[in-house]
């Protein structure tokens, strides 16, 4: 055979082979690839020779499906379903109460601890044969157990001596989709909304099932399909039929559907003259609507409501309160077991008060006045999903009414889909914050899991970063944030490192030479982003409206609390927002130990310095630098650290999938460029106030402040 023919065939083979391996990210972390660790693979094949699955439900079908594809992929062969034990190496996945086989194991006490969603995984012997048992009180617990078991295999963990007892501490673990009915996604950077409303209910995109699998694999049990800037149309029968078809896909995976309820819906789609919650017809309209919704979706979760916030309609339009509005909706849903999640994201530019204080002022007086199926939903911080914020003062303040968390997974203020920013450290920083509401240890985590105030109704929500992009999240590492949010919603005690290990092991490799560098990049990325965007407690200095890129110069707009100067307050004397008792006194909304820590310059951590204090440019910070110098060093270190991320990533070139490697490499190039943009724009702008030189050893910006101020982005995504 001629040489060039041989070369041609060889290159064709290599091309096909490389294409076979090319990873486009669609599979997320559920990559059931053949285990490369031969020793582990052999162990697994000894311990898993057959699956005995008992039960008869759509969820058990999902269990069978996941085990079938998972074990076949990971172990490289079909693992036969069996009906009796007969030999060693049987995997049993059965609800305890439905299993004669398992009844011999006397698990009643353990099962009592894990509730309706928890699961047990353990090695045992039944009829003298070695088995691995996955059991639970409900089928959905088995599904969660199966995903947990497959995760162990994906991470090549030892399964010869298992004794896992796992149950969620938070009841409602939701994604909030800021998805519009026209399929645009507010603050979405991964394409359009995955909900193909136009072709529903007939056309069920296969992606919906993969969405359900991915969420069930990390314990998410609810999804709010629509934007909080709500569209009443979604409550019409035509749309409810579409919503039902999605709910039918999600139900087997333990995922309930929720909708955003536009408070003015009785007027907009109900033909009423008012939406006043005291109006009998309005009350009846919501009761009828709830009945209609449940006729379509028997396990409908409830409503998420943004009312009298950023122009959304609400009870205050009729001189009524948040309590009046929320309780009317709660009464309508009560007969069906539905909940109302009422957002506390309220602020009004006409109120002469620090925006950071307004939600607390508005909601604290209502504590305990809501129905028992109402949760108040607050963002992690008092302003708006900034790269860093102190925890929202409502955490600890509301004790009678369940307060649920709203984190943002989509990176509205954190580089959108261009920057690699692992958010687990941000979530953990908030969750572990001690509010001192009931002495020390009154953490935000204990407030949202209900243990501090003894609430059984508890919740956590993450604003989704999912879209129609092939890899779901635009940036591959956006998947890590969806994953991390879900894992923390199930168990907020997990560390950012543990979650990173899991995600990297499932998404990339279990090779420590790959895990280590990727974990280093991930674990450093949030602080790096804070440094090149908003160091030392600066906040809300981003682009106007699209929130893309730096714009600390924004001022003189139709409302002060959407400008940048409102927050940094830079002047010739210094910079920062004085929120101590000599300023807005926002600190007073925290319990004394927290208020004192933030108020005193001796104890206020550097990362919150300019959130709570207005300080002179020559103020000496802890490092001995002046404030101006420290600001410069943080901005410059942020950029240098992105370059280190690039170097670390580039060291992986011949170790990971080419398509993945190039995807991230290109985005890191963009991230470095934008970090330089943030650094130069902010340092040059603040220098106009400090009138001080950038420390001479640092590279001078190569463009002028006027250049940065002139930049315009009419088509920036996510608006
Ligand atoms: O984060 C801000 C966003 C708005 C969002 C609003 C909210 C959905 O800029 O796009 O609106 O907060 O949380 O309601």
| Strand residues, percent | 5-15%
Q: Mean pLDDT, as a whole number?
A: 96
Profile the largest sheet: 8 strands, parallel, barrel
In the CATH hierarchy, the third-tier topology of the largest domain is known as TIM Barrel
Count every beta strand, where a strand is a DSSP E run of 2 or more residues: 15
Bound ligand species: 4-O-methyl-beta-D-glucopyranuronic acid
Note the gap between the termini: 60 Å
As laid out across the biggest beta sheet, the strand order is 6-7-8-9-10-11-12-13
Q: Enumerate how many helices there are, as a single number.
A: 24
Report helical residue fraction. Answer: 25-40%
Q: How would you describe what is shown here?
A:
The protein has 719 residues and is of the alpha/beta class. The protein folds into three domains: 26-166, Chitobiase, domain 2 (2-Layer Sandwich); 172-502, Glycosidases (TIM Barrel, Alpha-Beta Barrel); 531-577 and 614-710, Alpha-d-glucuronidase, C-terminal Domain. Helices cover 39% and strands 10% of the residues. The chain contains 24 helices and 15 strands. Strands 6-7-8-9-10-11-12-13 form an eight-stranded parallel β-barrel. It has a five-stranded mixed beta sheet with strand order 1-2-4-3-5, sandwiched between helices. A two-stranded antiparallel sheet has the order 14-15. Strand 11, helix 13 and strand 12 form a beta-alpha-beta unit. Helix 22 runs antiparallel to helix 23. The termini are far apart. Residues 14-20 have low confidence and may be disordered. 4-O-methyl-beta-D-glucopyranuronic acid is lined by residues 178, 186-187, 228-229, 306, 310, 345, 384-385, 412.
């Amino acid at each position: 055979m001629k040489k060039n023919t041989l070369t041609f065939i060889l290159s064709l083979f290599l091309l096909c082979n490389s294409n076979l391996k090319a990873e486009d990210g669609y599979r997320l972390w559920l990559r059931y690839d053949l285990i490369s660790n031969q020793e582990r693979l052999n162990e697994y094949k000894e311990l898993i020779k057959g699956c005995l699955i008992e039960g008869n439900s759509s969820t058990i079908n999902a269990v069978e499906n996941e085990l079938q594809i998972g074990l076949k992929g990971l172990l490289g062969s079909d693992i036969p379903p069996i009906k009796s034990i007969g030999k060693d190496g049987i995997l049993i996945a059965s609800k305890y109460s439905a299993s004669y086989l398992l009844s011999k194991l006397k698990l009643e006490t353990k099962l009592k601890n894990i509730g309706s969603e928890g699961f047990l995984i353990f090695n045992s012997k039944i009829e003298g044969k070695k088995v691995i048992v996955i059991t639970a009180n409900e089928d959905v617990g088995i599904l969660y157990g199966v995903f947990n078991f497959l995760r162990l295999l994906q991470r090549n963990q030892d399964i010869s001596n298992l004794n896992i007892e796992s149950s969620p501490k938070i009841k409602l673990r939701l994604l909030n989709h800021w998805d519009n009915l026209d399929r645009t996604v507010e603050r979405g950077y991964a394409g359009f909304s995955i909900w193909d409303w136009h072709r529903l209910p007939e056309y069920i995109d296969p992606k919906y099932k993969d969405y359900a699998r991915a969420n069930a694999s990390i314990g998410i049990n609810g999804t709010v399909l629509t934007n909080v800037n709500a569209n009443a149309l979604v409550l019409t029968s035509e749309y409810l039929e579409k919503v039902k078809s999605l709910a039918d896909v999600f139900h087997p995976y333990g995922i309930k559907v929720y909708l955003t309820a536009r408070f003015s819906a009785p007027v907009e789609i109900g033909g009423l003259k008012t939406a006043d919650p005291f109006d009998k017809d309005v009350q009846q309209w919501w009761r009828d609507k709830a009945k209609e919704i449940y006729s379509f979706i028997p396990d409908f979760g409830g409503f998420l409501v943004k009312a009298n916030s950023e122009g959304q309609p609400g009870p205050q339009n009729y001189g009524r309160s948040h309590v009046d509005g929320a309780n009317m909706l709660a009464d309508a849903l009560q007969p069906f077991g539905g909940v109302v999640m009422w957002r506390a994201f309220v602020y009004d530019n006409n109120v002469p008060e620090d925006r950071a204080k307004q939600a607390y002022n508005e909601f604290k007086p209502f504590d305990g006045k809501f129905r028992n199926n109402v949760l108040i939903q607050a963002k992690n911080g008092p302003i708006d999903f900034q790269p860093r914020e102190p925890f929202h003062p409502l955490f600890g303040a509301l004790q009678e009414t369940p307060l649920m968390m709203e984190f943002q997974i989509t990176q509205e203020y954190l580089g959108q889909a261009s920057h690699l920013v692992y958010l687990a450290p941000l979530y953990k920083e908030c969750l572990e914050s001690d509010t001192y509401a009931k002495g020390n240890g009154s953490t935000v985590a204990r407030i949202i899991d209900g243990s501090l105030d003894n609430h059984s109704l508890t919740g956590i929500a993450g604003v989704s970063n999912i879209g129609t992009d092939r890899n779901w999240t635009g940036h591959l590492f956006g998947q890590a944030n969806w994953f991390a949010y879900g894992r923390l919603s199930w168990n907020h005690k997990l560390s950012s490192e543990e979650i990173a290990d899991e995600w990297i092991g499932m998404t990339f490799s279990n090779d420590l030479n790959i895990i280590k560098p990727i974990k280093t990049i991930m674990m450093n990325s949030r602080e790096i982003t804070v440094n090149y965007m908003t160091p030392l407690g600066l906040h809300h200095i981003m682009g106007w409206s699209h929130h893309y890129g730096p714009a600390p110069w924004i001022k003189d707009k139709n409302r002060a609390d959407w400008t940048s100067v409102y927050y940094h307050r830079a002047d010739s004397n210094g910079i920062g927002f004085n929120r101590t008792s000599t300023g807005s006194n926002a600190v007073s909304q925290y319990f004394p130990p927290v208020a004192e820590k933030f108020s005193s310059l001796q104890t206020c951590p550097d990362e919150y310095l300019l959130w709570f204090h207005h300080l002179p440019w020559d103020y000496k910070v802890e490092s001995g630098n002046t404030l101006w110098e420290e600001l410069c060093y943080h901005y410059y270190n942020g950029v240098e650290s992105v370059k280190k991320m690039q170097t670390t990533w580039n060291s992986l070139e011949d170790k990971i999938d080419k398509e993945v490697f190039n995807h991230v490499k290109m985005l890191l190039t963009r991230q470095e460029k934008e970090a330089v943009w943030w650094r130069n724009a902010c340092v040059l702008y603040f220098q106009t106030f400090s009138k001080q030189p950038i420390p001479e050893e640092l590279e001078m910006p190569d463009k002028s402040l006027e250049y940065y101020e002139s930049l315009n982005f009419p088509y920036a995504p996510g608006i």
